[in-house]
Design the sequence.
């Protein structure tokens, strides 16, 4: 897969892919007879490199969360395969196989309030999580794991003793969600919109936790979001999705100088205090038909730079230096 040059926060080797998505497609069938189909993910090829933070960016419906759930084995791909350290993750099945996989790959989800049973104290949930994976662990070792995980997210055990989920703020509860994922010391953390339901004042604090996990512990993280600024802040590398396809991929700086018209649209949609807000470029509303039929570029019906070939033939990926981009503007006709 394409791996652009990296902006590294440290000197760690970033050449080893711990997860690989190979031609992944996910199709959902709707309706009583399943005749209506939605292609949520469309032939995605992606390397997730050991020790990096990969940002996955796109608007609602672009396939971001579906990719997260595919990696976390909540969904199974319709086509293609996902490899963890060279092994097809379909081999991890049954309670024992899934437990083995989740000791290496953990998820943090959008809604921290849905991540905990409201009728149970948070500390009890953390204790049960450790016992589930390490049933023979001594009590003192169990306590050390919990204390260590809480410290990594800026909390201590006194903060959680005797308290229920509703007694925490959204930011605190999301920290606890991260701490719970850390209890099994996973190599990879998939965070799906981890700050979208957190107060704006605490979003950077949550993202800094992820940066510390990468810098200090060598964790590999996939952080899914729709906020371009926050994605650029936290990521080493960025993948931009539109209608299930990767349209641009490269180092995080591509968000400052995007190449694909869709990435440019995302960048121009952010209000700035140093200019009058409002793009002079007009983007179409779009239709689900063009890309869904597999003809032409998936962004062609919205693109202000559309060429005749864009609605007739699907573009290939082109390496333009900082990124690879799927667009006829960069491809010889």
Sequence:
């Amino acid at each position: 897969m394409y791996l652009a040059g990296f902006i590294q926060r440290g000197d760690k080797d970033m050449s080893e892919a711990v997860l690989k998505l190979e031609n992944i497609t996910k199709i959902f069938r709707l309706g009583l007879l399943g005749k209506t189909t939605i292609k949520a993910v469309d032939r995605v090829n992606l390397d997730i490199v050991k020790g990096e933070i990969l940002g996955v960016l796109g608007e609602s419906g672009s396939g971001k969360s579906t990719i997260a759930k595919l990696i976390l084995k909540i969904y199974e791909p319709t086509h293609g395969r996902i490899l963890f350290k060279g092994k097809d993750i379909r081999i991890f099945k049954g309670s024992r196989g899934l437990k083995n996989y989740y000791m290496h790959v953990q998820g943090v989800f959008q809604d921290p309030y849905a991540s905990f049973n409201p009728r149970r104290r948070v500390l009890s949930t953390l204790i049960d999580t450790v016992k589930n994976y390490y049933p023979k662990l001594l009590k003192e070792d169990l306590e050390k794991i919990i204390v260590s995980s809480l410290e990594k997210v800026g909390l201590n055990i006194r903060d959680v003793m005797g308290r229920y989920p509703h007694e925490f703020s959204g930011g605190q509860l999301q920290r606890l969600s991260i701490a719970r994922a850390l209890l099994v010391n996973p190599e990879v953390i998939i965070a799906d919109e981890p700050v979208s339901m957190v107060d704006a004042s605490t979003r950077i604090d949550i993202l800094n936790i992820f940066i510390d996990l990468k810098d200090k512990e060598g964790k590999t993280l996939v952080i899914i979001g729709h906020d371009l600024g926050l994605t650029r802040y936290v990521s080493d590398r960025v993948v931009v999705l539109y209608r299930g396809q990767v349209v641009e991929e490269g180092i995080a700086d591509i968000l400052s100088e995007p190449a694909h018209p869709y990435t440019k649209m995302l960048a121009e949609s952010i209000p700035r205090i140093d200019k009058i807000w409002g793009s002079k470029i007009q983007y179409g509303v779009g239709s689900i038909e063009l890309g869904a039929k597999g003809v032409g570029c998936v962004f062609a019906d919205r693109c202000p730079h559309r060429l005749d070939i864009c609605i007739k033939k699907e573009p290939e990926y082109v390496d333009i230096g900082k990124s690879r981009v799927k667009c006829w503007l960069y491809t010889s006709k």
Remarks:
- The first strand starts at residue 17 and ends at 30.
